[in-house]
Amino acid sequence: MKAGRSRAARCASGACALLSVVVMSGCGNSDTAGDDHVERPHTPLITALSQVKDTHLTQDWIEFGDVAGVRARSGAGSASPRDPLLGYGEQKLADAAALLPGLTGIDPFAARTALTLGYPPDQVGVLYGSFNTTEIGAKLRKLGYKEHALAGGETSWIIRDHHQIDQKDPLAQLGILTALNVVRVSSKRIVHAGATADIDKTLSGARSLSDNEEVGGIADCLGQVEAAQIGFDVNISDTPLGVGVLRPSGSDADATEVACVTTESEGAAQALASGWPGRVKSTMSARAGEPWSKLLTRPRAEVVGGASHVVRLTARPTGSPRVLFDEWAVGDLGPVLTGAKPDPRLSAKPR
Predict the structure, then answer these.
(1) Quick one: pLDDT at residue 13?
(2) Averaged pLDDT for residues 149-160
(3) Which of 48, 51, 228, 294 could pair with 244 in a Cys bridge, judged by C-beta atoms 3.0 to 4.6 Å apart?
């Protein structure tokens, strides 16, 4: 995916009045309703975004995982390592989850929610939950981390800084080269990155990321997702978009994939929404080498509105609920979301 930069001017206001227009596959009618006040939903995604700051680092890319939600809805209070949504928001740590707790005291699958913010090498990870700071501190100290007490009961543990790499480090053997160079630990939050400066950019600012008009609007639109990604793609739009997955019972059988797109005007939003069912029916997936209708069914569209003219597009996946994530990763979302021309560099063969 190619990333663009956020627009310079951003409004600090909250959610605006909503315009609701629903478009269903095979249905040409719509309903319109206005509301002068909208109460922000208290979803795990909104809660996580409200605890980090709105900066250029955090605006550009957001990956979220409702770890506890996946665990609870996957049955028996725990998630299978094979769950397709387990690890979102904490991919670098999740890949080493089998050995990481014994080495550092940090169990990524025991977090409540997880965020990854920004692009490499400046990415910052945040885990929310309940953490044993004594155990984590003892294990980090054994690895050679230096302890620095901070305000509010938080401790900064640093083994390297400024994105430095030590290939002989035990964490490097797990594939974690810089992501745990700096680790800030409290009983309710762990923040980690390759450099102290990146953590400072994430935690310092005048307002929270959820109060960013465009990002917050997309997060509101995505709703009670178990996994989500929010960012920019210059092949689709110069405004941000987000994708996510809803699984009310934790089963892939009842999963709904959702895309929320900001547009420039009410007319653009209406056009985007009305064309969604037809694009799912007629557009080919270059990544999968087959029609989108083989990947997604029951497409629906809703013009959410607001100052960023958000459009909510949903569909049911025919297989694993990661279709939109996988398509975005290879730059293949534009044609089905907006009707953009496909990237000629994408292969028409299945990957």
Answers:
(1) 29
(2) 94
(3) 228
